[in-house]
Design brief:
This is Neurobeachin-like isoform X3. This protein is mostly helical. The chain has one domain. Helix 2 packs antiparallel against helix 3. The mean pLDDT is 75.
Length: 67
Amino acid sequence: MADLKSPPFSDIKRPEEVVAMAMNDSLKFAVLIGLIEVGQVSNREVVNTVLHLVRIIESKWNAVLRI
């Protein structure tokens, strides 16, 4: 179990790192919401991350619709 007094900083992710991870898109939004709730991201990071997630989802939908 991790020591809560000194968290492993290598495991801490920035929003742009979370977006790049291979996981469910809704989970990425959930992680972003959690970061916002605890005040760990700036407004600029939130906007950039949301725009990036929307772009990813849009490209996935375009790929599905082309089939």
